Amino acid sequence: MGYRKIRGVTPPGQYFLQGDEACAEGAVAAGCRFFAGYPITPASEVMEHIVRRFKDCDGVFVQMEDEIGSIAAMIGASWAGAKPMTSTSGPGLSLMMENIGYAAMTETPLVIVDIQRAGPSTGQATRPGSGDMLQVKYGSHGDYEIIALSPWSVQEIYDMTIRAFNLAERFRVPVFVLSDEGVGHLRENVTVEQEVTVFERDKAPGQPPFHTDEPGGVPPMPCFGDGEKLLVTGSTHDPFGYRKTQVSEVHERLVSRLVGKIRNRADEIVDTDSYFLDDGPDVLLVAYGITARAALSAAKVLRDEGQKVGLLRLRTIWPFPERVVVESAQKCKEVVVPELNQGQICREIERLLDRDVISLPQTNGETMKPTKIIEFVRERAVTQP
Amino acid sequence: MIKQVRICGFGGQGIVLAGVILGHAGILDGKYAAQSSSYGAEARGSACKSEVVISDGWIDYPHVLKADILIAMSQPAYNKYCCDVVPEHGVIFHDEELVTPNPQIALSHFPVPATQRALQIFDNRLVANTVLLAAVVSVTGIVTPDSLKLALDKTLDGRHLEANKKAVDVGFQLGSIVKKH
């Protein structure tokens, strides 16, 4: 139990993979052997590749009747001891929302891959978007926390999918690989290492599965089939899973722990990357996913022109990298957030910094071009020297 | 050094596959490669494009902004993308039979009889993409010929591999003729 190194199932070396395929490879490397899903553009290639790979490693693949069935099957598989995954896009994610709350309440480790496309509704099925940034965190009812990771390259979707499984098991929580069509359908170099670090579940027989003495702690998770008496319910429950829907202290304690186990350990989870922040840039770009690559490209061009521009890239979206964002923005005159939505993460940053943050939204179903960011920053430099 | 390549034509001509093979050849040469393509209905019949960026180092922005090399296999695709080529040193390769160049475009054009040779030698127009791609590789040296062949091995299954390997040789030959002119 805990973190350990294992030999990967994919021969080490250089590969040329599509983002969706690399995601599936990462899942298999992390020990995923259960996949329930329903095809949807632009995420279908994840399940197609999982099917190919499961043939070699005895995995269980089920094409479900819809996304509601998919996530329900994953929850069952997780309680039977498997590391489960599904892949979907916006419309499928919307269907999953009720059971995402159930997974949060029952502290069920899951990995949900969301290859975002341009919404709302069925929107533009084949085109990129980042419209689900808030939905993954707030889509189900009640107070809970999830983890969401945002890769910007094919290598990173491979690495982050492995990490997603580790975080799901470590914190007993749904973890989202919150990618986009831009990365999902991109083909790039992927380096596969011989060894993979994985987190193995602490089963702790006889221990209460829904309580630890540590405030905001993560309890051990037994599984069905090991001879334990288990009760799993989405209703308010005590340390052993008995329904306690009329006891206010039990509910208070449970919900506080579900939220606290992530919020109190944000520093262990949060991961960011920065470029050109050392000289205290005038303009700070904050970006994530495929858009961060346009932002890096733009920052380099603008710096060559003599403008002090830096980039903070969010590799973790939830829990939000609050401390790093506040520190990075401290000495900057302007904070600009380019993103493929109408300002979802910009608003989160504005809330944190308590000052004006400039949104650079794009919802036309295209990846953002570096020129859009370059021209925007140039123009502001002229009008607000 | 960074090179941006755009391949375009009709869906079904193997435009996407040509991009995948070229990108794969790039990484076999020890470089970074990023390949993306238009996706959906347009990849299955109407205008279709595939983009490949090959670089000695990490690629910041993985899509083509202005092509160093444009490879066109249909007239509508040529018309759409011929202006999106780097004016200083950009080159255009096109299927001789399927594309008539616009005389107002002052760039080097290389006509390659890819579809004609594919039909003549293989009685199969499906390998025209490989013939054209091999000609481009032969003229520009964007990837090594060995890596291109190895990329075919790694990308195609047995059914199509042999014909495509022969198509590569035909393309290399056409390329060496084009180079002389």
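qc> Chain B touches chain A through 19 residues (CB under 8 Å).
qc> done
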